[in-house]
Specification:
With 447 residues, the chain is α+β, with helices and mostly antiparallel strands. The chain contains 16 helices and eleven strands.
Length: 447
């Protein structure tokens, strides 16, 4: 800024034009105004500086917390570039004949430098495993955490080899889905469950634990490690209810996973496509049936009315019951927030079918239907569950119905809950011998 004395002429540049002078605002000779370059508003200059500094601070915090290095560096450099641009900086540099000028160019150079000199990426903790056993009747097998694990079937040695790309499991349980080559009902598909916390502690907690060896017992539908059962077929949801705390896991704001629960289709559901998928549930090709189940599971709540229509029409068909209950259960498990929309696609009469499926003789269908109704928490399932619990002669079936009743009737008035307990405890009105003591029944219902 040029200082001009009274009576003196302003200093001139070489081109003969007078130099710019920052005038003091009228009435305040001490305070000079900000003369923004190119007449850019001073308030926006301050805003740009503030936002840029915020980006730099956030990027540094992410870097210290060992988050995604690329994202952290990019955040820092965007902030740095905003600050330079807001100041109107003509920052530049040259090296070995190369030159760069401007805020954007300097931010890009800083980004490349941070990527190169930042801390090295952590090595991936790959855990290898092998599953041995009789796979002669197995058409397809998948081990699933949050997503299916990488798996290779070695037919020459009757083994399945799998790898985990990290030592921390993401789900509360691991499942093994088995599609078979058998055609008898209850033998075409089954699902084995394993507790993730137990597997984590036994096989993944140790620094040396980089190899897992299990034995697949097809006849008894379980996976063993010596005499210890790791996976087994579940017919009841008791373990699910015991572990249920109804606590929603919060995700950090910088995690992209915070914006979506899982992949679902957002395009309108095509009735023609849905009918084709439901026809494929009855295909003799194992892979076509499996893919149809998986695809129905990601179709979203818009597919539920047509799926329930198919279930009403062909409820006695094993493959239809299996496919529809699987798709409904997986849809709700992956998208818990969609329970209201899913309920809207189910008619009141449909709950008779779903509750009956939760008492199915096939353990996999029974578990899938019971888990779905337990998580749905729709009051329309209350009366069908009461009737099914009263007629149950199998303890596992009775437990399923009581637990469905617990969740579906949680919002009922206390007087109605008391009537339900008395009805279920009356030996003269039901076949079930599991719950005759109201106190034991209340312990399960937790009302």
């Amino acid at each position: 800024m040029a200082n001009v004395e009274e009576g003196a002429q302003p200093e001139e540049h070489i081109d003969g034009k007078p130099a710019e002078v920052d005038e003091a605002p009228p009435g305040n000779p001490e305070k000079k105004s900000i003369s923004a370059e190119n007449n850019f508003p001073a308030d926006l200059v301050r805003l740009g500086i503030g936002v840029g500094i915020l980006f730099v601070v956030v990027g540094i915090i992410l870097l210290v917390l060992d988050r995604d290095r690329t994202f952290s560096a990019l955040t820092i450099c965007v902030g740095f570039g905003l600050v330079l641009a807001a100041f109107g900086s003509k920052a530049g540099g040259a090296w070995a004949g190369w030159s760069a000028t401007g805020a954007g160019a300097m931010a890009i150079i800083l980004f490349l430098m941070l990527i190169q000199i930042g801390p090295p990426k952590k090595e991936i903790d790959i855990v290898r495993g092998r599953l041995e056993g009789d796979f002669s009747k197995v058409a397809d097998l998948r081990i699933i955490d949050e997503d299916p694990l990488y798996l290779y079937r070695d037919r020459s040695t009757s083994t399945l080899k799998f790898i985990m790309l990290e030592k921390k499991l993401r789900s509360a349980r691991l499942t093994i889905q088995v599609d078979t080559t058998e055609f008898d009902e209850t033998k075409q598909f089954f699902k084995l469950m394993g507790d993730a916390a137990t597997i984590q502690k036994a096989y993944l907690a140790s620094a040396e634990g980089n190899f897992i060896q299990w034995n697949f017992d097809y006849a008894n539908r379980r996976v063993m490690d010596g005499n210890k059962v790791i996976f087994s077929e579940a017919g009841t949801i008791m373990s699910l209810a015991d572990a249920d705390t109804r606590v929603v896991k919060s995700l950090p704001w910088w995690s992209m996973a915070a914006f979506a629960e899982t992949d679902t289709l957002t395009a309108p559901v095509s009735p023609l496509e849905l009918r084709l998928l439901m026809e494929q549930l009855n295909s003799d090709d194992t892979y076509i049936r499996r893919n149809a189940r998986d695809y129905l599971a990601i179709m979203g709540p818009g597919a539920v009315p047509l799926m329930m229509g198919e279930l009403r029409k062909n409820f006695r068909d094993y493959r239809t019951r299996l496919g529809i209950t699987y798709a409904l259960g997986e849809m709700l498990r992956a998208q818990p927030s969609s329970s209201k929309q899913i309920s809207e696609g189910i008619q009141e009469a449909d709950f008779q079918l779903l509750v009956a499926a939760a008492s199915d003789e096939d353990k996999t269908i029974r578990y899938q239907a019971a888990e779905f109704l337990y998580n749905l928490q729709d009051p329309r399932a209350v009366q069908p569950s009461i009737n099914a619990a009263k007629e149950a002669t199998d303890e596992g079936v009775a437990n399923n119905q009581i637990l469905i009743l617990r969740q579906s009737g949680s919002s009922l008035p206390c007087s109605q809950k008391g009537n339900i307990v008395r009805e279920l405890s009356d030996p003269s009105t039901n076949l079930n011998r599991t719950f005759k003591d109201p106190s034991s029944l209340n312990r399960v219902l937790k009302w």
